[in-house]
Inverse folding.
């Protein structure tokens, strides 16, 4: 599973586990919030926009 977890994410996760999320924000700055925002933006776009669009496109072309 180390292949799926880059070094920076493991480092951030260790800091968060030891000291909490607020300490992580204080130490690493707003870049953590930007990364989290982009992660959820991409994930939700795939789940709620791309997959339903692909399914609808296939269903419409069947008729």
């Amino acid at each position: 599973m180390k292949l799926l977890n880059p070094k920076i994410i493991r480092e951030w996760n260790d800091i968060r586990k030891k000291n909490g999320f607020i300490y992580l924000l204080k130490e690493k700055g707003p870049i953590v919030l930007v990364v989290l925002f982009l992660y959820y933006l991409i994930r939700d776009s795939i789940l709620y926009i791309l997959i339903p669009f692909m399914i609808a496109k296939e269903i419409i072309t069947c008729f």
